[in-house]
Design brief:
Elements lengths: L9 E8 L12 E2 L4 E2 L2 E8 L12 E15 L6 H8 L7 E3 L6 E8 L4 E17 L6 E7 L2 E5 L18 E11 L5 E3 L2 E9 L3 E2 L11 E2 L4 E9 L4 H7 L4 E8 L5 E16 L8 E8 L10 E4 L2
Antiparallel strand pairs: 1-2, 1-7, 3-5, 4-5, 5-9, 6-20, 7-8, 8-9, 8-10, 8-13, 11-12, 11-17, 13-16, 14-15, 16-19, 17-18, 18-19, 18-20
């Protein structure tokens, strides 16, 4: 019977690169606990444009190539810290992470152990990170990666099996809580939010040049943070933040069964829309969009704090 690759036998592992696009000579891979991934090598097509009376094209070539895709995870303590650092362009200082300017790159290996095939992606960095927090679910996070290139082999890049991930329990949307205040004020409990989603986008892109089909580097833009949340329509407090363009601080704390915590602080955000209608006879909910801005006290537009 033929053996086809099974998702249940497919591992992901990474190693941090010290030079963009170059796997360390003797890497020690670290396993990634993931829900799904869509990492692939893609190539542009370069087609001939000649007009020939028989109407049939003569030339179809492969052009620029790059690696990329999503890794979807349930965020837990420790296992994803390097990817969080890559998204923030910074490193944890003790247990605090803020927006910075230093990109981090990885070699990521997909290990199809049942058919002994190993796909390798180099120069990978987190172009964007999407976080979803809601009741009765884990904290779902999607790391969208952009990279340099890819290859396939019948052996791993590492002589030994990957270091196992911790499998710490994921954070969830019901073990923490939210607090809100005017920027610079004292945070108070916010208990009307039914879900919150936000994205940190670094605008990563390849910088292709003549003489190579792989990029020599990745360019990046500003750290743009946009989000949405649904709230029960309880009073005028939230809509007034929109109507009055009130600069707002929002803290979102998530927890786990072993008392681990991760706290996201947006020290200065603007609520850019407040939409509320009636679509059922039950409780009304409003949809809110927001964007995060640089705060001089935090020296960041987003601060992430993890428990020790």
């Amino acid at each position: 019977m033929a053996t086809f690759a099974q998702g249940a036998r497919t591992g992901l592992a990474y190693v941090v690169e010290s030079t963009f696009g170059t796997t360390p000579a003797t890497p020690t891979l670290i396993g990634i606990p993931y829900v799904s991934h869509s990492l692939n090598l893609t190539k542009d097509r370069v087609q001939g444009q000649e007009i020939i009376p028989d109407r049939m094209p003569r030339h179809d070539r492969h052009g620029n190539r790059q690696a990329g895709g999503d890794i979807v995870v349930q965020l837990g303590k420790g296992d994803f810290d390097p990817f969080l650092e890559s998204a923030f362009f910074n490193t944890f200082s003790t247990n605090t992470l803020k927006i910075g300017t230093a990109p981090k790159f990885f070699t990521i290996e997909e290990q199809s152990l049942d058919i002994t095939q190993f796909r390798r992606f180099t120069g990978m960095s987190v172009g964007s990170m999407a976080v979803s927090i809601a009741p009765d679910q884990m904290v779902n996070t999607t790391f969208t990666l952009v990279g340099k290139g890819g290859s396939i082999a019948t052996t791993s890049v590492s002589a030994s099996a990957p270091t196992a991930s911790s499998i710490n329990p994921p954070f969830d949307g019901y073990s923490g809580g939210l607090r809100i205040a005017d920027t610079g004020g004292s945070l108070g409990t916010l208990n009307v939010v039914t879900n919150l989603d936000f994205t940190l986008n670094n605008a990563l892109a390849p910088t292709f040049v003549v003489g190579s089909d792989e990029t020599p580097s990745l360019e990046f833009g500003r750290a743009e943070i946009e989000g949405t949340m649904n709230v029960y329509f309880e009073d005028a407090a939230m809509i007034n933040r929109f109507l009055n363009e009130t600069e707002t601080a929002l803290e979102v704390k998530t927890g786990a069964p072993n008392n681990d915590e991760m706290t996201w602080l947006f020290p200065r955000l603007k609520i850019n829309s407040f939409e509320v209608g009636v679509d059922s006879p039950t409780s009304r909910q409003a949809s809110i969009s927001f964007s995060a801005l640089f705060d001089t006290t935090e020296n960041s537009s987003l601060t992430l704090t993890r428990s020790a």
